[in-house]
Amino acid sequence: MATTMLPPDLRADVETLWGYHDMGHEPRRCDVGIGLGSHDLGVATYTAELYHQGMFPRVVFTGANAPTTIERFPRGEAVHYREHAITLGVPAEVISIETQATNTSQNLTNSRQILAEEGVRPESVMLISRPYQQRRAYATCRKVWPEINVMCSSQPLPLDEYIAGIDDVDRVINMLVGDTQRITEYARRGFAIEQDMPDNVVDAFQRLVAAGYTSRLI
């Protein structure tokens, strides 16, 4: 049975990884907001909030399905995100969807293609993602879309509040550990630019792996 309680002996290491993945970008007006598909419907919620704040006039939701999302979003992540944003008052006509991407590189390259087909060639984009996906999304975007001015944003939730919303602390920790590994591994494979990883982040990652949080490792 899932629990939402973060074990006290793991808190410091989980908080270290949580903080590392936050790029700390200040949201500012840009040409397009791109909501990256995942199991977290909060991405669509926050994209709608940013739209209503006037941060961007256009939205792209991108994502097919993954093993972690197929049950929750059977018609695809982007489709469900779009429907949710419309219920929150985002006009349907400003939302485009990209329904084929199964990884972050495809999220970005396919979104750029969708926009180009619609005659939109943005100079700046905001990537809206899960909190612990920010750094990987940024590094991937700088690799596959280097000419774009990119910033990252996520729901500004404290760690414990985010875990409570997901309702599964083990899932959150496993995802954090997996995304941390991908920062270095994806750069090594040429999927993303390199990002500095401080020693305290490496140490926290290794301790969480040793504690058994390995289900999202490559």
Summarize the SSE layout with pairings.
Layout: H1 11-21, E1 32-36, H2 42-52, E2 58-62, H3 77-87, E3 95-98, H4 104-117, E4 124-128, H5 134-144, E5 149-153, H6 159-166, H7 169-188, H8 199-210
Parallel strand pairs: 1-2, 1-4, 2-3, 4-5
Helix pairs in contact: 1-7, 1-8, 2-3, 4-5, 5-7
Question: Could you describe the 3D structure shown?
Answer:
Residues 43-147 form the DUF218 domain. With 218 residues, the protein is α/β, with parallel strands linked by helices. It has two domains: 11-20 and 158-210, no CATH class; 29-153, HUPs (Rossmann fold). Helix content is 45%, strand content 11%. The protein has helices at residues 11-21, 42-52, 77-87, 104-117, 134-144, 159-166, 169-188, 199-210, and strands at residues 32-36, 58-62, 95-98, 124-128, 149-153. Strands 3-2-1-4-5 form a five-stranded parallel sheet, with helices on both faces. Strand 2, helix 3 (77-87) and strand 3 form a beta-alpha-beta unit. Helix 2 packs across helix 3 (77-87) and helix 5 (134-144) packs parallel to helix 7. It is globular. The two termini are 25 Å apart.
Note the main attributes of this structure.
45% helix; alpha/beta; Rossmann fold; DUF218 domain-containing protein; Cell_Envelope_Assoc; 5 strands; 2 domains; five-stranded parallel β-sheet; 218 residues; Rossmann-like_a/b/a_fold
